[in-house]
Amino acid sequence: MTDIGYWGVPLAILGGAIRVSTPFIFVxxxxxxxxxxxxxNLGLEGTLVFGAMSGYAVAYHTDSAWAGxxxxxxxxxxxxxxxxxxxxxxxxxxxxxxxxxxxxxxxLAFFFGKPYVQPxxxxxxxxxxxxxxxxxxxxxxxxxxxxxxxxxxxAFAASWMLKNTRIGLTIRVAGDxxxxxRALGIDVNRVRLWSTGVGGALAGIGGxxxxxxxxxxxxxxxxxxxxxxxxxxxIFARWSPVNCLYASLLFGGAGALGPALQSVGxxxxxxxxxxxxxxxxxxxxVATSSAGGSATRAITAAPGELSITK
Amino acid sequence: xxxxxxxxRIPDRALAVSTHGMTMRFANFYALRDASITIAAGSFxxxxxxxxxxxxxxxxxxxxxxxxxxxxxxxxxxxVDIPDPRAAHELGLGMVYQHFTLVPSLTAAENLVISxxxxxxxxxxKTEREGLAAFMEKMPxxxxxxxxxxxxxxxxxxxxxxxxxxxxxxxxxxxxxxxSVLTPAExxxxxxxxxxxxxxxxxxxxxxxxKFREVTAFADEVSVLRRGxxxxxxxxxxxxxxxxxxxxxxxxxxxxxxxxxxxxGKPVLEMAGAKAPDRSGLKTIEIDxxxxxxxxxxxxxxxxxxGQMELMELLTGQRPLEKGAIRVKGAAYRASREEARRxxxxxxxxxPLKNACAPKMTVAENIYFRDFDFLGGKTQFWLDxxxxxxxxxxxxxxxxxxxxxxxxxxxxxxxxxxxxxxLAREFTGAVDLLVIANPCFGLDFSxxxxxxxxxxxxxNAGAAVLLISEDLDEILELSDRILVxxxxxxxxxxxxEGADIGEIGRHxxxxx
Lengths: 310, 512
What we know:
The structure holds two protein chains of two kinds.
Chain A: H1 8-36, H2 44-62, H3 65-87, H4 94-113, E1 126-128, H5 136-141, E2 143-145, H6 146-164, H7 166-176, H8 178-183, H9 188-212, H10 226-236, H11 241-255, H12 257-263, H13 270-273, H14 276-289
Antiparallel strand pairs in A: 1-2
Helix pairs in contact in A: 1-6, 1-9, 1-10, 1-11, 1-12, 2-3, 2-4, 2-9, 2-10, 3-4, 3-9, 6-7, 6-11, 7-9, 10-11, 11-14
Chain B: E1 17-26, E2 29-39, E3 44-48, H1 55-62, E4 70-75, E5 78-80, H2 85-90, E6 93-96, H3 108-115, H4 125-137, H5 154-167, E7 172-176, H6 184-199, E8 204-208, H7 212-218, E9 221-226, E10 229-235, H8 241-249, E11 267-277, E12 284-287, E13 290-293, E14 297-301, H9 308-316, E15 323-328, E16 331-332, H10 337-342, E17 345-348, H11 352-355, H12 363-367, E18 374-375, E19 378-379, H13 385-398, H14 415-426, E20 433-437, H15 445-460, E21 464-468, H16 472-478, E22 481-486, E23 489-495, H17 501-508
Parallel strand pairs in B: 3-8, 3-9, 6-7, 7-8, 14-21, 14-22, 17-20, 20-21
Antiparallel strand pairs in B: 1-2, 1-4, 4-5, 9-10, 11-12, 11-13, 11-15, 15-16, 18-19, 22-23
C-alpha cells in the first residue's frame, strides 16, 4: 500500500461520503416524498432492516444481487403501503404507527434472517472510477456503486417531479392543505398511501445496499439507526430531495472522519470524531434555523399537514 | 395561447340555477326546510340571512358537499344530480369560500394549474406561464403569480380565489362573503367586476352577504333565509334595506351602540419607537408615538397586510419587540399574564378560536382562563370546578353563548358564539385597556351590533380601547380618533368627528 500520509483523511472522507451515504440518500428521498404528502413514516428504520434481510436472502437464493434489490424494494413497498393503509383510518397517529412498524420490520427481519447470517450472497457491482490513478487509496475511494449514481439521479428527478408534474403538485397539495386538496377533488388518502409506498420501496433499496454492498453482509446490527437518522435528515434538508442528497453526502463524509483518523495513526480521542456526523448536523441545524433571527417565523418549507409542524 | 379547455357540457354563457323544495335535516334539526330559490341566468343574486339561517347549508347542497334530505336542483331548466363537488364543477358550478382553499406553499401559478381538471401530467411551465399571462391580461386586477400564496395578503388571496374560478371557466359562481377581507375600494372593484361579467351574460352569481351596501349597489335580486326557511326576496330595486333587515331578523330587537359619553382621561397605552420584523421577516414594523387614553376608542384602519396583525401580536406578546417600548399606565409592559392582570389589560384578537382559545378544551374552561388560578387578589393552587361551572354558566347566559353544554369543546361552537364566549371572558371584571382586532369578522349583523355595543359600553366605563380593524365602517362607527396604518407604520391621524373619508382612503392605499 502506498503511504500517502495525511492525504488519507480527505480521501477517506470522500470514499465515506460515496459509500456510507447511499442508504441515507435512498431513505431520505423516500421519506421526503412521504412527508411532502403530509405523513411521517418513522417505520423506515424497520423497512431498511427488512429490505436488507429480504434483499440478501433473495440475492442468495437467485444468485443475483439485482433480483435481491428488486425484492427489497417490493418488500419496502408493502411496508409503506401497510403504513399508508393503517393511517387512513380516523384518529390513527402516523408517528405511533411508524414506531410500531419500525419494531415490527426489525423483528420480522431478525426472525426470517437467522438462516442468512452465515451464507454469502453476491455483491452489487461497483464501477471503478479510480482506474486512471495508481494510488490504491484513491482507487478504493472512487469505487462507486451503481446505486449511488442512481441515488443522485433520483434526487434531481424527485425535485423536478415535485415542481413540474401533475403528480408532484398533487403530492404537495395533499401535504400542505388537506382541505384544499379535497376541494380540488384529490383523494388525499390515496395520494398519501402511494407516497408512503414509494418511500418504503426506496428505503427497501437502501437496505439492500447495506447487505449487498457495504458493509455487504446480513446481520442484525446492520442498520444501527440509519433509517431514523435519514428521517431526521429530511427535516435538516428542509423537505427538498436535492438537499437530502447533499445532507446524506455530508453525513456520510463526516461519518468516515473517525475511522480515517484512526487509520492514519491518531489514537488519542479519535472516538470523539465518531460523533462528528451528529455534531455537524446539530450545528448546521441550529445555524440554519436561527438565521432568520425571529422566533415567530415558522419553518417555511415544512408541509402544512405534517403532524409535527401542526 | 393556452386556455383551459371547456368541458363539453358547460355552455359558453351564464347558467340559470334553481332549487325546488330543498330540505336538509340533521337528526331532528332542520338546517334547511323546503327552500325553493330561482336564480336567473346572468343575474347577481344575493342570499341574505343571519348566522345559522341555512345559507351555507343551501349552497353546500348546491355544490354537492351535502346530499339534501329531499329537493331537487335544476340547471337551465333541466333537473340534475350533484352527488359530489366534482359533479358540480363539471356542470360549471363553482364556489369561492369564506376560508381560503388555496394551497399556501404553492405559488399562485401552481395553484391555478393544479386546480384544472385537465392539468397535464408533465407541466411545461413556459407555455403555462404564457397562458396565465394572457389570461391575466383580460382580468381587471393583478395578483403576483410567482410567490407562494401563503405570503400574499388576505385581499390578494381572495382575488386569486375569484380568478381561479374564472380561470376554470365556471359559469355559475357562489361567493361566500367574499368581501369580508377586503377594503371598501377593493370590494367595490371585485364586485364591480363580477357585476360586469353578469351583465355581459358570461356569469351568474349567487353571493352570501351581510352588507346591505353591497346588496343595494351591486345585486339584482335577493332571497332571504331565516331559520332554514325561505322567507322572502325579490328585486333589490323594489326593496328597502329596512325591509330586507326585517325579513332577515324577524321581530327581534337589535342592540344599538350605546351613546358616546364625552370622557377623556389619562393615557393608558403608549408605544414609543417600537420596532419589530414583520411576518415575512423582510420588512419592519415601526410604531412611534401611539397613545390611547382612558375613555377613548382609537381605531387603526388599514388594508390587510400592512402590519396591523404584527401590531396586535406585539401587544399580545406573541411577537418579540426588537427595539423601543410598550408602556401601560407608565410602566414597561411585556404582556405577561402577571402584568395583564395587574394593569387590567384585556384582548379580543382576530380569529378568536386560534388566538384566544384552546380549541379542544371545554367552553367552561375557556371562559375560566383568566381566573382559574386567581381569586380575590390571591393565587390559588387547586382548580375550583364548582366556581368554574357557576361563573361560566352565568357568563354563557349573560352573553347568550349558544352551546350544547358547558362541557362541549369550544371548537364545536359557531364563529359568532366563540367570539361571544371570548367576549364574556375578556369583558368581565375591571377593564382598563382593551386591545381588539377585527372583532366582527364573519359575524352576522345582530351579533355585530351586540359586540359593538359592548365595546362602546367598555369605553364609556372608562376603558382605553385600541381597535384594529379592516372594516372601515366599524372604525368610523366606534372610534374617537382614527389612525391609518400603511406599510408597517402609522401614516395618518385624524379625529373621528369630521374625518375626511377620501383622505383616509388615500392613506390606506399608500398614496399621500
